[in-house]
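Today's session is about reading a structure prediction critically. Students often jump straight to the picture, but the first step is always the sequence itself: look for stretches that repeat, for charged clusters, for runs of hydrophobic residues. Only then move on to the predicted structure, which in these notes is written as discrete structure tokens rather than atom positions. Here is the chain we will use throughout the hour.
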Amino acid sequence: MPGVPAPLRRRAAAVSVPGSASGGVRWLLRLEGGAVLALAAYAQTGAGWLALAVLFFAPDLSLLGFLAGPRAGALFYNAAHSLLGPLATIAAGALGGQPVALAAGLIWLAHIGFDRLCGFGLHYAGASGRTHLGPIGRPDPW
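Below is the predicted structure for this chain, in token form.
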């Protein structure tokens, strides 16, 4: 991993878990998350920053699905944190001339990008705390 300080490379290698993204793929996924967040050009919609502040964490309401168990929780969380929903909403807003849908889709996309940047990935059903980016709650250089 050129450009990554040696202590961070060693720490990232030390916390790798079988079945989760590691090495260059893990770094690429993290950078991709940051890029998605950067690409969510919300300011261009003119919708205002209050809407962003109010709606940014709305997808995390899907965490309430975990009250019904890990399988249901993963289903609800993944539905709200897959890129398919916000991309469809953005497309519908852009193609249909619906600025509210466009703004909502960009906020949703920004939230997912932020989560990926922080290391929160899609959950595996029935595997508490395991995501496609690795386990939640462990030490991480990012």
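Discussion point for the tutorial: Residues 99-117 form the longest helix (19 residues).
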